[in-house]
Amino acid sequence: MSERLEWAHASSGAELLFPGEDIDGAVVEPGEIAVAVWTGSNGIALHGPREAVRDRLLQLALAVHEAPPVPFADACIPERTDPRRWRPAPLPRPLAPNPAGPALCGGADRPAAADPRLATCPDCIERWNNDAPLTRLSLTHAVPAPS
Question: What spans are recorded as compositionally biased (Pro residues) (predicted)?
Answer without folding.
Answer: 89-100
